[in-house]
Design goal:
Blueprint (H helix, E strand, L loop, with lengths): L4 H4 L13 H8 L3 E7 L4 E10 L3 E8 L4 E11 L2 E10 L4 E8 L6 E10 L4 E8 L4 E10 L5 E8 L6 E6 L1
Parallel strand pairs: 1-3, 2-4, 3-5, 4-6, 5-7, 6-8, 7-9, 8-10, 9-11
């Protein structure tokens, strides 16, 4: 985000609001790392990320212009004791994102994840989630349908153990 801050700031905090809850507010005041991805009109890309959440607040912004297509995969496999990540997705008309997020953090980590997409006319966002690690893991996945024909699908898998708490909500 540092390299494209002027463009990124037009999107930062527009759909995941800083006053959503106390954890999100804390996240915004401590953002230490993140990704800003802008896909131009009618382009396509695939992105595979392995994210080390040593910084406790990671914020990603994904912007798809009209007709853009993205296959996105992120894997959180390392982190400190408390990790809060957020991803804001802006999908223009006829764009498509296949968003895959997997978390296999160490068993002593508390992890809160906020993912939200704003879909314009005929845009598609398919969410795929896997939660395998952490002591406490809370995922909040939201999709706003802003235009006619916008659609989304959520698929999730999780495996917990006796000392693990997993909370997944979709709106």
């Amino acid at each position: 985000m540092k390299n494209n801050f002027e463009l990124a700031k037009n999107f930062l905090g527009k759909i995941i609001l800083p006053n959503e809850d106390k954890f999100v507010a804390s996240h915004y005041s401590n953002i230490a790392d993140g990704l800003f991805l802008f896909l131009p009109r009618n382009s396509s890309a695939t992105l595979n990320l392995s994210i080390s959440a040593k910084n406790s607040a990671v914020h990603n912004i994904i912007v798809l212009q009209e007709g853009a297509k993205l296959n996105y995969f992120e894997n959180y496999a390392d982190g400190n004791e408390f990790v809060v990540d957020a991803t804001e997705i802006f999908a223009a008309e006829n764009s498509q994102i296949n968003f895959q997020s997997f978390q296999n953090l160490p068993q002593d980590v508390f992890h809160l994840s906020y993912k939200k997409a704003s879909l314009q006319r005929y845009a598609v966002c398919d969410w795929n989630f896997g939660c395998f690690g952490g002591k406490f893991s809370r995922w909040k996945i939201e999709t706003d349908f802003e235009g006619e024909g916008a659609q989304s699908e959520n698929i999730g898998i999780f495996f917990g153990n006796e000392g693990q708490h997993i909370d997944i909500s979709t709106v």
